[in-house]
């Protein structure tokens, strides 16, 4: 019985530390998914495209004519989205890929601007990346992920 009483303070401290750590982690996740977080951590242009579903002007993005080896990540949360080997020149004015990394994006039916398209968003933070079309390279997937450069961050291999 005496040994059990000696262990109680240790168990109490351990439980308290675990509970506090979990709460801190949960608070960071909530903060990372709040619009205030994005407003304070993204430029006005990034916020417009990523969070308000805007589009950058064609041929203006830094990754439109960019051909280096590495991976493209979500500019809002850092999730890996595309491998450079899937990038191709679609001559459309935006960086284009024929496939996303499995599970990295979600698809939303988009009826804006008088047309029906498929919007592509980051599966982690739900930020707008661009749209996917069925006019990509026929020798691979036939898909063209037409992405906004500003929604991407490139990391070299």
UniProtKB/TrEMBL annotation:
Keywords: Metal-binding, Oxidoreductase, Zinc
UniProt record, GO biological process: protein repair; response to oxidative stress
NCBIfam families the record matches: peptide-methionine (R)-S-oxide reductase MsrB
Residue ranges of every copy of the MsrB domain listed in the record: 35-157
Cofactor (UniProt): Zn(2+)
Residue ranges of coiled coil: none
Gene Ontology MF, one: metal ion binding
Family: Belongs to the MsrB Met sulfoxide reductase family.
EC number: 1.8.4.12
The keyword Metal-binding is annotated on this UniProt entry: yes
Reaction catalysed by this enzyme: L-methionyl-[protein] + [thioredoxin]-disulfide + H2O = L-methionyl-(R)-S-oxide-[protein] + [thioredoxin]-dithiol
InterPro entries xrefs: Met_Sox_Rdtase_MsrB, Met_Sox_Rdtase_MsrB_dom, Mss4-like_sf
GO cellular component, as recorded: cytoplasm
Keyword Nucleotidyltransferase attached: no
Annotated organism of origin: Myroides guanonis
Protein name per Swiss-Prot or TrEMBL: peptide-methionine (R)-S-oxide reductase
